[in-house]
Amino acid sequence: MNNNIDAKNKLEKIVVSTGIGKIAASTTNFEDKILPEMIKDIAAITGQKPSVRRARKSISGFKIREGAVVGLAVTLRGGRMFAFFHKLNTVILPRIRDFAGIKRESLDDGGNLNIGIKDSAIFPEINP
Fold this sequence. Notes:
alpha+beta, 3 helices
């Protein structure tokens, strides 16, 4: 990151991630049936296979065991990043019901933008 205040901002990477804690806890045979489908859906949305994120340690209050799958993440750079950003702006965000723009609070001091999308049906690659 450049510390020059006169430097222009630029897009370096886009991280697409999803947490799967509640789904994994409530479903038997999660890793055999549901996890491959989720990986396929994220790969279709981003054009890149996601990495499986596992719990580093057990937390009894959240019923999480060490090594259990807690999420999926994809880091996009270069051409795939710009293609996803273009698709996000032109296709995905306009399909959100009652979309009134991105809130200013979604942007932090480091220039990171965090957008949460609850409904996966807005992605054209996903069959609802």
